[in-house]
Amino acid sequence: MDAADALNEIAFWLERSAAPTFKVQAFRKAAGVISGLTPDEVAERTRDGRLKRTKGIGDTTFTVIRQAVDGNVPDYLEKLRQGGAKPLAAGGDGLRPLLRGDLHSHSDWSDGGSPPEQMADAARRLGREYLALTDHSPNLKIANGLTAERLSEQLDVVAGLNGDAGFRLLSGIEVDILESGELDQTPEMLDRLDVVVASVHSKLRSDRRTMTERMLGGISDPHTNVLGHCTGRLLQGSRGTRPESEFDAERVFAACAEANVAVEINSRPERQDPPDNLMQLALEAGCLFSIDSDAHAPGQLDFLQYGAERAERNGVPAERIITTWPLDRLLEWLNSRN
User: Fold this and answer.
1) Hey, is 142 helix, strand or coil?
2) C-alpha distances in angstroms, 280 versus 310, 317, 322?
3) What fold, for 96-335?
4) Whose CA, among 50, 132, 167, 180, lies 20 to 30 Å from 223?
């Protein structure tokens, strides 16, 4: 098999299993090193030992390349494939096959680890019909949020990746809801996007009233399609833990239902947001939902399994989950707010 493909697939499976970033990057970096070489050049440099002495190629990645050059599926990859055959989540079997797409993902344009084309390719391989690229907005400087100028450039990249029948990369943004309740991007730019996920990322320990008014402001903006990870909680992971933000959930979910804004079921293992009790409140309020991966790497796109498990366990009907809808219906709904 192609050696670069083998390295990238290994990275995919490692990302899917939430392996340490340094381990994933070793395989992505090695794939990048050989991607500019022809297959014959890779084979020649592998067999004469030059590749093993190349910066960015370690013992493990060299073994993978050598086995691929010899015409074999690398042992490391075969082991990961066998492990990947098992579902990530114990439940959600009824809902998982109904998911057609994902409206929240990040690329290396902000704080993701891979370019948009790798995110799109992974989504295709997972059988998605659409994926929204929703990099961060300017206020989130720590995540390299996109200015209006950079976002405009990204729209050209997204357009250039949309040529294959059966899959659509949607333009989008995860836009900060600022303390004023306004969205952190120009209305003119938001008008040009397919999907707007609005989230709170700062001052998450504000008092209940302040946070409620802030969220209501973001929901009322006609550009907002999805309310992202509403509590902002973290349950595990390298960033540590963080408690839920305090807000009037009944008012917030009532506003979402009235404004036709979907409540995100964030599938990241460290988020699991909203908690079950708030998912029930949103369900009772008549809200729509969007099961999203919030992927920051290609392998994390399969995190949708966790969201499907939680939605099914909480009795969320598939018809009220917009990421089960076909693309034409989804686009009609997305456009209905503007």
Assistant:
1) helix
2) 11, 12, 17
3) TIM Barrel (3.20.20)
4) 167
